Amino acid sequence: MGASFSTTGCTTTMALDTTALNRQMTHFDGHAEIWLFGYGSLIWKVDFAYLERRPAFIHGWSRRFWQGSHDHRGTPEAPGRVATLVRDPGAVCHGMAYRITPEVLAPLDVREKNGYLREVVPLHFTDGDSAEGLIYLATEENAAFLGDAPLDAIAAQIARAHGPSGPNRDYLLNLAEALHELEVEDPHVFALARRLRDARGFDVRFPPTTQGDA
Q: Could you tell me the end-to-end alpha-carbon distance of the chain, in angstroms, rounded to an integer?
């Protein structure tokens, strides 16, 4: 995949809007269908056409609220926090896979333009099948990346932030609810949702076995 970067001092940072970079990707050219793996809002906010969807997972990644949102759940002056994936050997990240046609990628590139790049990953379905899959991934090289912080600080930022797509808290709580419905354990997401619930009185459901923080 080709990419252009802007450099300030010793830090190389990818441009905030990744639409053009994603449209340079040629890996799926000629494919009639693509499996898209959703691990954040793509699980619960499905505003695109798909042919089929199936619960799925990927190896070696963990879901983290380390990506800033300037365009959906926050503003440039007060960004929210949304999910990305970080490499984590031995980890498994569960989500939802969608079989889509290539023309669906254009509007998805716009939806995910705030720092996310397309990445090809091995995808595994819960029934034992596997396929080549596509994720939208925001790494530390993108200008919107916020990185790790204490869970209380992340939860407080999410509680405050609001953007064109609505309150940042709705993103977190909707994701927690969707993972609950999939019977997925995610200590990081549920720890953040629990902090919002305890501080703000929101009703959040968790799998009964969920314990600890991440």
A: 32
The answer for residues whose C-beta is within 8 angstroms of residue 120's C-beta and 6 or more apart is 27, 132, 133, 134
Running DSSP on this structure, what letter comes out for residue 18? Answer: -
pLDDT tens digits, one per residue of 36-71: 999 999 999 999 999 999 999 999 999 999 999 999
pTM: 0.86
Q: Where are the domains of the chain?
A: 12-200
* Structure token pair of residue 55: 């619960």
Q: Which residues are catalytic?
A: 112
The closest alpha carbon to 169, from 198, 138, 192, 146, belongs to 192
Fold of 12-200: Hypothetical upf0131 protein ytfp (3.10.490)
pLDDT tens-place string over residues 81-136: 999 999 999 999 999 999 999 999 999 999 999 999 999 999 999 999 999 999 99
**Which of 15, 143, 135 shows the shortest CA–CA distance to 79?**
143
Torsion angle defined by CA atoms of residues 15, 109, 124 and 179, in that order, rounded to the nearest 10 degrees: 90
